[in-house]
Amino acid sequence: MNYFSSDFKLGILGGGQLGKMLLYDTRKFDIQTYVLDPSDEAPCKIACDHFFKGDLMNFETVYNFGKLVDVLTFEIELVNLEALAKLEDEGLKVYPSPKTLKLIQNKGIQKDFYIQHSIPTANYKRFPNLKSVVVDILDSKLKLPFVWKCTEFGYDGNGVKVIRQISDLDNLANVECIAEEMIPFKNELAVIVCRNPSGDIKTYPVVEMEFHPEANQVEYVICPARIDDKVSEKARAIALTVSEKFNHVGLLAVEMFQTEDDEVIVNEVAPRPHNSGHYSIEASYTSQFENHLRAILDLPLGKTDSKVAGIMVNLVGEEGFSGNVIYENIEKILGWDGVTPHIYGKKQTRPFRKMGHVTIINENISEARRIAEDVKNTIRVISDKLNN
Amino acid sequence: MNYFSSDFKLGILGGGQLGKMLLYDTRKFDIQTYVLDPSDEAPCKIACDHFFKGDLMNFETVYNFGKLVDVLTFEIELVNLEALAKLEDEGLKVYPSPKTLKLIQNKGIQKDFYIQHSIPTANYKRFPNLKSVVVDILDSKLKLPFVWKCTEFGYDGNGVKVIRQISDLDNLANVECIAEEMIPFKNELAVIVCRNPSGDIKTYPVVEMEFHPEANQVEYVICPARIDDKVSEKARAIALTVSEKFNHVGLLAVEMFQTEDDEVIVNEVAPRPHNSGHYSIEASYTSQFENHLRAILDLPLGKTDSKVAGIMVNLVGEEGFSGNVIYENIEKILGWDGVTPHIYGKKQTRPFRKMGHVTIINENISEARRIAEDVKNTIRVISDKLNN
């Protein structure tokens, strides 16, 4: 199949920042792209060849869009699965497969999958709704504390809560959920795996998510993780197994915990380019986005090693600011070696909205870490208006 | 000035592959772009915010386009200078300045400029037309052999010819030209300088153009050049001087010869992103395109050092093929470590048409050189039709 400067059509469901970064590589290879997104202001709207506005959860919309393209992929999991399944049944190449996505979209099913394939993960129990969780606690069948997770539509910590006392359940949605054992961990790690339909498979180096000591928020994604090689090998091996068991095609970001006794257990996965791989644009031989593209087109996978150490800092809207975005001090951080801001293109900021990220690369990881902290303490995503 | 996700408008004259690669960075920074190009199929047409079709040599077209934007730059020198000069007089920021471009567009004026500023360059004589060259030869005022160069509108070896006997002048255009002394050289070198209006200035490492032994054609651009450090320092120092003397803003690619006695002399310059800097996308801390953008917006310049060794191979249309382009064996070279093809997006190939380039990066330059040769011998730019 000739993908390059040809009539071949790649369809992408979702037109957000992940799609936007994927489009750098479709442009580089001159691959024709069709993008579907509900927003008129989607970051992908320019740089794709054909943009369509529509609801990603609507069967007809997704099905009809899929009929226009030769290969279909997505940059967000919240898409209409039935439409994808029908398209795949009708012979369209849909990567990742809806069969895989079905196993991942629901965290209860995802956890069951790990157990079935003896992939290490924290103990859990599934519940049809919040009420039955309460009942189990009252019957002391469920011990406090535990981690509550709604099984669907959670993202960015949304839909996850640590329950230390029964009252912590107040105001949580009465939806299907799981209760997960709290695992004390040393590090939160992630490994991105890429795999093509021919079965070529590669892992990126293990990255480390460094959390803010007080606020339970990832502050830095650090590549390579500053951990023992044995733990790295273990993490990469587990990530490979997860990808193979899912028979996954494309990118799979495997999030893991390094326990206090240096065991590695799987937390959850994302079947797409992932925040923990953004550093790869500057630091890796092949970015995660290029490798996603190579994978879904069944091209050979690119080298996943790093050229230099890379650290990523997310740019999220400051509390107290809403309106036209201003990146305060961005000129200042641009003056520092190896600092590259990525601005996603959202014109309006809101508290905690993901507006972009900054990559810091350096031959020396400690130096990169020092600069990353300066970046974090210098740039601010504010607006021309204060909230009232 | 707030450039990022704002109403700021950057205008780019020319929508070819250089503009296309520049747009990766305007997208990354979410800077609004306006592009003017004569072709409906310009590679920039998608990925810019607003595309205008029009003649770059037409005063009205360029002037009116310039009136739409806040800062104006170009990716090709063949633009209407009078329009740029009027826009600059009226207060528009035009980078590089038409004053600089005026000194560069005409090779006779460019050579005079080097002499005025004691910048080493080959001896030459200016001629108003071809006839007067013939007269000088007959009067033996001009010795054979020499290099004939038309002063304007030459590009890619076009408009340059080695004259060994008077009959070599046959069929050359009877236009303003120069006759330049033939300098035997060891190496053809280039240094890209970036400079912003505040006067911050940086040079990229010296690159080496490796020529095909028989065909007098650049085959590989190699960074860093495999030359003595003293020669590198000399080349970078000369490039800095050239940029400062031109009071240049943006990128200036300075092409030089390393003579047999290790002198470095200037051949010619290009006031824009340059083929000799394409390797920087993969190999450098900051690509030449990002640094062009930083320079013309008077932002701090990015680090110009390399992360790894880089080699570029141009992809030009094979002789004998015209029509819908096919990149034969591209899947094969994608399987090799550190190999990245860039497809410019021209749907039709023609003999010697620049269709793309391939970058090879590696920690070891000899290994990169070996892979580059394999790339060169493997990928072919052909078409679905043979010429007759």
Automatic annotation (TrEMBL), chains A, B:
Pathway: Purine metabolism; IMP biosynthesis via de novo pathway; 5-amino-1-(5-phospho-D-ribosyl)imidazole-4-carboxylate from 5-amino-1-(5-phospho-D-ribosyl)imidazole (N5-CAIR route): step 1/2. One of its GO terms (molecular function) is 5-(carboxyamino)imidazole ribonucleotide synthase activity. Keywords: ATP-binding, Ligase, Nucleotide-binding, Purine biosynthesis. It holds the Pfam family RS_preATP-grasp-like. ATP binds at residues 107, 149, 180-183, 188, 267-268. SUPFAM superfamilies: Glutathione synthetase ATP-binding domain-like, PreATP-grasp domain, Rudiment single hybrid motif. It comes from the Bacteria. Homodimer. This is N5-carboxyaminoimidazole ribonucleotide synthase. It comes from Flavobacterium fructosi. The lineage of its organism: Bacteria, Pseudomonadati, Bacteroidota, Flavobacteriia, Flavobacteriales.
